[in-house]
């Protein structure tokens, strides 16, 4: 005999596991979506990294034409 | 040898289902938190990316849920005595106190950090303060110490629209403060109406509810006084940048309705209330729920209507704060 008999306890555990899996998947999807939103939002992605970069120097920025 | 027992039927208590953990988060309270936070977020000037807005609402709701779990952990002894709360997961024996504490702390940390990352530091800090206020100031300290527990504890429930506003703007303004005050002043008459017809519950749990410490006559007077004080707050909210004719009409109409209900409660004595099984108290309690939902709904409607230039111009006349 195998131990395949379903006990209500197994059902409850499986329900909990499925619930937790869905919550974690939703969380991952949300963090992924947030990352995309933040990156595509136009914020500064580059940060100062101890070397001079003209792209980050306000003095070198050429104003857009009217 | 009896060390190893695989007999599931000998389990000390039934293992919790997923929905028992969801129940720990007080989903019904969460709906009010989501609704008011969403209103605060939608009426705020500027805007968030839809995903950021969705994340903000989810994490504000999660913070509210974490407060609920921590409240159930701390108040398990009271919940077991009160009829209204005896079926909550801990007194029902489905979830242990340790589990509730662990879930509460974990979700509180996740919600605060994620709200901060999704929006800004002030919104995260306000959410952290709200959880602290509800769990430590209200649940641990005031609830069992003073009959003013509902008044001061109500502040925790008043923060969500302010957090929604701050999530968008990054700062606290007069509008955010008035939305806070609206819920803050609404909470006492709402809960005291409930306490009037749930009288034996708080008495048996030895919670110093106003009905228990000062009597039911004093509670009826308190309901009337707070409802009178609520009216200017509701009107003042309509005289800011988030107000307008739709909100103002709703605020005046509903506040007068609430006031009449509070007057009806004040006029009655216990004999009359017992005779009709607290029909007026129950009616006012239900009305107070609609009151808050409709007022925040009206604020949201104002924000939507202001997209029409002609309406925006007309609604701006209600903005007294701007004028001075």
Write the layout of secondary structure elements.
The complex is a heterodimer of chains A (about 70) and B (about 325).
Chain A: H1 8-40
Chain B: H1 18-24, H2 27-43, H3 50-74, H4 76-81, H5 97-118, H6 121-142, H7 149-169, H8 174-197, H9 199-205, H10 210-213, H11 215-238, H12 245-267, H13 270-275, H14 279-305, H15 309-315, H16 320-323
Search tags:
heterodimer, A: 66 residues, mainly alpha, 0% strand, B: 324 residues, Tetracycline Repressor, domain 2, 2 domains, 16 helices, flat
Which bin fits the share of residues in helices of chain B?
A: over 70%
Provide the low-confidence segments of chain A as ranges: none
CATH architecture of the largest domain in chain B: Orthogonal Bundle
Oligomer: heterodimer
Major sheet summary line of chain B: none
Average pLDDT of chain A works out at 79
Helix content of chain A: 40-55%
Using only C-alpha atoms, the radius of gyration of chain B works out to 21 Å
CA-CA gap between termini of chain B? 84 Å
Question: Over all CA atoms, what is the radius of gyration of chain A?
Answer: 26 Å
Q: Approximately how much beta-strand content do the residues of chain A carry?
A: under 5%
Looking at CATH, which topology of the largest domain in chain B would you report?
Answer: Tetracycline Repressor, domain 2
């Amino acid at each position: 005999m195998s131990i395949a008999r379903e006990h209500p306890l197994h059902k409850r555990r499986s329900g909990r596991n499925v619930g937790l899996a869905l919550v974690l998947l939703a969380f991952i999807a949300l963090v992924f979506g947030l990352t995309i939103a933040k990156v595509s939002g136009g914020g500064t992605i580059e940060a100062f990294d101890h070397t001079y970069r003209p792209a980050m120097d306000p003095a070198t920025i050429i104003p857009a034409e009217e | 040898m009896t060390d190893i027992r695989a007999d599931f039927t000998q389990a000390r208590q039934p293992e919790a289902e997923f929905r028992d953990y969801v129940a720990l988060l007080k989903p019904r309270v969460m709906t009010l938190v989501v609704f008011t936070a969403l209103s605060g977020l939608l009426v705020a000037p500027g805007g968030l990316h839809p995903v950021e807005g969705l994340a903000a609402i989810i994490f504000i709701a999660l913070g509210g849920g974490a407060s609920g779990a921590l409240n159930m952990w701390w108040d398990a002894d009271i919940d077991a005595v009160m009829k209204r709360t005896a079926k909550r997961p801990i007194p029902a024996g489905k979830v242990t106190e340790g589990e509730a504490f662990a879930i509460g702390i974990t979700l509180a940390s996740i919600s605060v950090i994620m709200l901060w990352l999704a929006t800004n530091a002030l919104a995260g800090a306000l959410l952290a303060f709200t959880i602290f206020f509800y769990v430590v100031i209200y649940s641990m300290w005031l609830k069992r110490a003073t009959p003013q527990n509902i008044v001061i504890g109500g502040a925790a429930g008043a923060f969500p629209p302010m957090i929604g506003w701050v999530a968008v703007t990054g700062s606290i303004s007069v509008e955010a403060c008035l939305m806070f005050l609206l819920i803050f002043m609404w909470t006492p008459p709402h809960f005291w109406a409930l306490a009037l017809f749930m009288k034996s519950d708080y008495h048996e749990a030895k919670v110093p509810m106003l009905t228990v410490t000062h009597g039911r006559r004093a509670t009826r007077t308190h309901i009337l006084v707070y409802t009178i004080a609520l009216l200017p707050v509701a009107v003042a909210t309509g005289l800011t940048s988030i107000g307008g004719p739709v909100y103002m009409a709703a605020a005046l109409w509903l506040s007068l309705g609430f006031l009449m209900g509070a007057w009806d409660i004040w006029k009655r004595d216990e004999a009359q209330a017992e005779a009709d099984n607290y029909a007026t108290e129950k009616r006012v309690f239900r009305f107070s729920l609609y009151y808050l939902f409709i007022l925040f709904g009206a604020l949201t409607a104002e924000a939507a209507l202001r997209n029409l230039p002609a309406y925006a111009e007309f609604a701006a006349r209600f903005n007294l704060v701007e004028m001075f």
